[in-house]
C-alpha cells in the first residue's frame, strides 16, 4: 500500500467524484482510477460504489476512511515535529469554531496569527459545538472553540469567557424598553436554531427555569439567516449579544437584555489531552486568549464576562451573572406595539 493511494482515496471520499478528486490530487482521472483499483484489490473488497458520475463509500470504505484519515494526520504531525525541531514554522493547523464566535473573534485572531506564522496553512471551520467535539475526537481538528463544559475524559478545556444571550427583535416592533424578563418570551413568536443545536438546548433550559414554553415559528441553522428573518419581521430570536452587536450597523434590529434568569454560556478552547500540540497550535491558543481579552476591553460592559484561562479536563465553569442596569418594576411585562409577521 502506498501513501499516494491513501491521499487519492481520501480525495474521492471527500468529493464523491473521480474527476474532481483527480483535479485536487493533480493527476489524471485514469491514473487515479488505477490507484484506487489497486488499493481495492490489495484490500480484497470494494471501497466505493459507482452510481453514475457519483461514487459513495461502501461499508468497508467507511471503516477504511476512519483509519486512513488518522494515519495521514499522524504522518503530518510527525513531519511537523521534525520541522519544528529544525526551527521551521511550517505545517497545517485546523481549527473548529462556533459560527457566532467566528463572526467577531476569528478575523483579528487570524490576522495576528498569520503575522507570527505566515507559512502555516490555517483552516478555520465554523461549526456547531457538537461537530467541533466530534472533529476533535476524530483527529480532524487540532483545536476547537466551543461551548463548555465538556465532560469527555480525553478532552482538555480552557475557559475563555461567558457569552451572554439577548432577545433580538425587529426595530419595527417598537418595544420601549431595554430589558425584560425571560417569562415575557411566552408572548413572542421565536426564530431559533434546530432542536439538536447546543444553543437551542440552552435556550430551552433557561426558558424552563422561567416556566416558559417557547413558541417557535421558524427553525434555521444559520445565525445570519435567523437575523435576516427577524429583521424582516418573522419573529424575535435569542442569540449571543456580542455576535448581534457586531452586526447592528447593517441590520434593523433591537437588542433587549434578558433577566430572571440571565441566559449565558461559557465559551472556551478544547483539544485532545494526549495529542501532540506543536508551536503553532500553542501560539494560536495563547493568541486566542489575548485577542478575546482585547475584545472584552474594547466592548461596552457588561457584554461578556472574563474567565481565568485555566486548563480543565472535566470541571464545569459556573456562570457569572452580569451586572444589571436600571431596575424594572416587578409587575412589568413586555408589550409589543408592532405587528410581527
Overview features:
D-Maltodextrin-Binding Protein, domain 2; globular; nine-stranded mixed beta sheet; Arc Repressor Mutant, subunit A; 13 strands; 3 domains; two-stranded antiparallel ribbon; alpha/beta; single chain; 341 residues; disordered C terminus
The residue-averaged pLDDT reads 83
CATH homology superfamily of the largest domain: Periplasmic binding protein-like II
Strand content: 15-25%
User: What form results from the Cα inertia axes?
Assistant: globular
CATH class of the largest domain: Alpha Beta
Measured as a percent range, the helix fraction is 25-40%
The CATH topology of the largest domain comes to D-Maltodextrin-Binding Protein, domain 2
Number of domains as seen in the coordinates? 3
For the termini, the CA-CA separation is 60 Å
Count the E strands. 13
Major sheet summary line: 9 strands, mixed
What is the H/E order?
Answer: HHHEEHEHHEHEEEEHEHEHEEHE
Poorly predicted runs: 300-309, 314-341
